[in-house]
Amino acid sequence: MKKIKFAFSYSLILLFVLSGCTNNLTISAESTDPFEVLNRQIFSFNKTLDQNIVSPISASYVKTIPHSIRKNVSNHLEWMDKPSTIVNSALQMDLENTILASAKFMLNGLSLGFYDFDNNETKIKKKDLGSTLAKLNVPEGPFFMVPLLGPKTVRDFTGTLSDRQSLSNISSNSVNKLNLVEIPINLVDKRSKLSKSIENIYKSPDPYTKMKSYYIQNRRKNVYGDEYLEVKNKKLDIEFEKLLQ
After folding, report:
1. Is the pTM of this model over 0.70?
2. Which end of the chain, N or C, is more open, meaning fewer C-beta atoms within 10 Å of its C-beta?
């Protein structure tokens, strides 16, 4: 336990050391990649692992398991992740999302999340500690590839570690063991959903750069929403005007 707490504290320190001092979304529109050489090596390792192990298993999963069952599995995995959204919605003072996420978590808890009694009618914004840190203007820090986990920023990776540690502290041993068992299932499930996007990335002239762009843009869109889209569109307009000069 002490080792885990030390790792958690160290990751927070690492976040601020590597992130620099900027906390403005407009400034952070440019991604820093000081670890590109190492990142490319890890990306190559992850890609080989994915193409030879994860992708074939994912393809077999889609081919052999009926869609209805795969949907139930996805529902359960989303339900297991809901406490993180509840806690971080509260931290971000998003009362509506906190209430809706809590209600849906309790309702679907009747089936352990395998069946969505709400039929996905209630729209809940997924939140994690990474998005909470973003709301507090903590800079996202450099981009880097994590072995097995894939693309992250320092802020989001720190948030991932902290979320897992916090939830393991408040969960029972049986729930924690269930989480460990479901990690590979979650990996295969997500891979099946992102199959087309990942294959398109691999076919690009520079898969690493495309993966980085794909992750950062989607992550910023999820965290900042319309604010990021406005900054992005404004930046594109400026670049277009430069071409006309």
Report:
1. yes
2. C
Centre a 10 Å sphere on the Cβ of residue 109 and count the other Cβ atoms it contains: 12
Helix (H) or strand (E) holding 152: strand 150-153
Q: How many CB atoms lie within 10 A of CB 207?
A: 17
**Average pLDDT value for residue range 126-151:** 89
Inform me whether the pLDDT recorded for 46 exceeds 80.
yes
Question: Could you tell me which residues come within 8 angstroms of residue 50 by beta carbon, excluding any fewer than 6 positions away?
Answer: 191, 198
The helix (run of H) or strand (run of E) holding residue 150 is strand 150-153
Three-state secondary structure call for residue 31: coil
Does 17 have pLDDT greater than 60?
Answer: no
CB 167 within 8 A of CB 55: no
Q: Is the CB of residue 166 less than 8 Å from the CB of residue 176?
A: no
